[in-house]
């Protein structure tokens, strides 16, 4: 098939075409990998890779947290190795976690954290809510119209994090 293609194109186009097709092949093969579904929530590839770079199995930790494991909820909520864009996306998944396990379970799981960890959780939630509409698709995703709307629906968490 490639031989037939080479007869149709001039020599200088052949090389460009072959290079272009190889480029597309590698982009599709390596660049278009999807995330991983965890308990019905699609976790983005960037979070999986970010967890790997930090020595965290992000999907395993998130799955255990979604199952209601208190230790996993506490660890997941206070991960300190993320920065930049990871903060926003991690915040989206934290909001989904809170929606899934509920306010009581969440507050109980993080009940022994210090003030710095409370601040970290607030930053994650606030950052996540800024891009939440872009990521909140899927079954069980609650829609929030604003940060205020979120905190109004989760007063127990607001009070705990700000005491």
Characterization of this structure:
With 163 residues, the protein is mainly α. Helices cover 69% and strands 4% of the residues. It has helices at residues 2-8, 11-31, 45-53, 58-66, 70-77, 85-101, 103-109, 115-135, 147-153, 155-161, and strands spanning 36-38, 41-43. It has a two-stranded antiparallel ribbon with strand order 1-2. A hairpin with a 2-residue loop joins strand 1 (36-38) and strand 2. Helix 4 crosses helix 5, helix 5 crosses helix 7 and helix 6 (85-101) crosses helix 8 (115-135). Residues 1-6 and 19-33 have low confidence and may be disordered.
Task: Give the arrangement of secondary structure elements.
Layout lengths: L1 H7 L2 H21 L4 E3 L2 E3 L1 H9 L4 H9 L3 H8 L7 H17 L1 H7 L5 H21 L11 H7 L1 H7 L2
Antiparallel strand pairs: 1-2
Count of alpha/pi helices: 10
Question: What proportion of the residues is helical, as a percent range?
Answer: 55-70%
Structural class: mainly alpha
Identify low-pLDDT runs.
1-6, 19-33
Mean pLDDT: 77
> End-to-end distance, in Å?
70 Å
Q: Beta fraction of the residues?
A: under 5%
Sheet bearing the most strands, described?
2 strands, antiparallel
Strand order of the largest sheet: 1-2
Q: Rough shape?
A: globular
- What would you report as the Rg, rounded to the nearest angstrom? 22 Å
- Element order, helices and strands? HHEEHHHHHHHH
Count of distinct strands: 2
In quaternary terms, these chains amount to single chain
């Amino acid at each position: 098939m490639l031989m037939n293609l080479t007869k149709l194109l001039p020599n200088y186009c052949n090389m460009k075409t072959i290079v272009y097709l190889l480029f597309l092949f590698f982009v599709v093969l390596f660049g278009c990998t999807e995330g991983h579904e965890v308990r019905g929530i699609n976790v983005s590839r960037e979070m999986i890779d970010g967890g790997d770079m930090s020595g965290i199995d992000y999907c395993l930790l998130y799955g255990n947290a979604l199952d209601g494991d208190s230790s996993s909820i506490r660890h997941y909520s206070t991960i300190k190795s993320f920065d930049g864009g990871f903060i926003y996306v991690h915040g989206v998944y934290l909001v989904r976690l809170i929606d899934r396990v509920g306010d009581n379970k969440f507050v109980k799981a993080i009940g022994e954290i210090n003030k710095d960890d409370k601040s970290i959780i607030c930053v994650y939630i606030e950052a996540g809510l800024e891009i939440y509409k872009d990521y909140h698709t899927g079954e069980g995703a609650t829609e929030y119209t604003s940060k205020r709307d979120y905190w109004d629906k989760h007063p127990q968490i607001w009070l705990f994090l700000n005491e």
